[in-house]
Structures are given as structure tokens and as C-alpha cells.
Amino acid sequence: MSASTGRFSRGVAVAAALTLAVVAAPVAGAAIRHTTAPKAVAAQITVTFTDRAMKVSSTTPQAGTTTFVVVNHGKKGHVLTVKGPGVKGAHTATIAAGKQAKLTVKLKSGTYMLADPVGLGAYAVQFVDVIPATSVSSGGGDSVTGPTVTLPPMCGGPYTP
Questions:
Q1: For the chain, how long is the longest CA-to-CA vector?
Q2: What does the pLDDT look like over 56-87, one tens digit per residue?
Q3: Which of 161, 84, 83 is nearest to 121 (CA)?
Q4: What confidence tens digit (pLDDT) does each residue in 90-128 have?
Q5: Residue 143: how many other CB atoms lie within 10 Å
């Protein structure tokens, strides 16, 4: 600032504007980054059938919309049925050998039973333990930690008598 005119010189004004832009840009970006809500992503679980077994890719998904991708690697037809909290009659059509199908259901916390009563029989089942959905929010910094997740009491393994 000039003592005689009381005005800033052009160089000082430009330097002040650049400094303000450099300091304000990360703060404005951080505010946008942390206040934008994440989009919901549906979980996907692959269920693979052979004529002797059923394999499930994940036995502890989070609650919410879940798509079961069912693949038949066997020689006979298979049907996936899902039973559990809030889901009673969800099933695929009969899936022919070498084909696949999708089944989308909304899972709540709890234990669900997956079965193939057509190809494998009523006693060849898998259990899926759905854990409560978690959400993490942050108001600053880049170091964010998630909440502790407690697994339900079921082991999620197959049961074949």
C-alpha cells in the first residue's frame, strides 16, 4: 500500500488474490467431497451349482439390496431359493445346464437359507448371515476409520447331512 495514495499496488493485489485462491481451493474442495452423499451400490453374491454342490461367494453380506448371480455348471436343472427375515418365496426359475440367472432381493439383518430343492435336494443348503449395513461419514481430514463390525453367530458354512 502506498503511503501517499492509500491504495494497493497492482502487484500486491494480484499476490493477495493468488494467495486467497490457493488457500481457499482445498477447503472448498474438501467441503464438497465430504458433504456429497455416496451412491448406494447393490451387493452381488455369486451362487455356483454343480450336480453335487452349491458354492456361495460371500456368506456375510451387508443388509440391503442384494443380487444373487446364479450359475449352473451342472448337467441338470437347478433352482435357487432364498428364505429368511422378510423373504419367504424368493426363487429363480429352473436354470438349465450351462446357463445363469439373477435374483435380486432386499436382505435385512439376520440369517438366510439358500437351497436348491430341485437339483440338489432339500437338505443341501447354505446359510448366509447378513450383517447390519454400516455407513461412515467424515467432516475433515483424510484419515477416516470405519466402525467395528461384529459378525453374527452363524458360521455360514454348508450343511449336508
A1: 97
A2: 988 888 888 989 999 999 999 999 999 999 88
A3: 161
A4: 999 999 999 999 999 998 899 988 898 888 887 788 888
A5: 6
DSSP β-ladder status, 110-116 and 100-107: unpaired
Q: Which long-range contacts (CB under 8 A, 24 or more apart) does 48-52 make?
A: 48/73, 49/73, 49/74, 49/78, 49/80, 49/95, 49/116, 49/119, 49/120, 50/74, 51/75, 51/76, 51/119, 51/120, 52/120
d(CA 90, CA 67): 12
DSSP secondary structure of 7-71: ---HHHHHHHHHHHHHHHHHHHHHHHHHHSPPPP--EEEEEEE-SS-EEES-S-PBSEEEEEEEE
Question: 19, exposed or middle or buried, with CB in 10 Å at 0-12, 13-18, 19+?
Answer: exposed
Map out the domains of the chain with their CATH numbers.
43-134 (2.60.40.420)
pLDDT of residue 14: 55
As given in the structure block, the three cell numbers for residue 60 are 456375510
Task: Please indicate, yes or no, whether the overall pTM of this predicted structure exceeds 0.70.
Answer: no
Q: Which residues pair with 69 in a beta bridge?
A: 46, 102
Higher confidence at residue 16 or residue 47?
Answer: 47
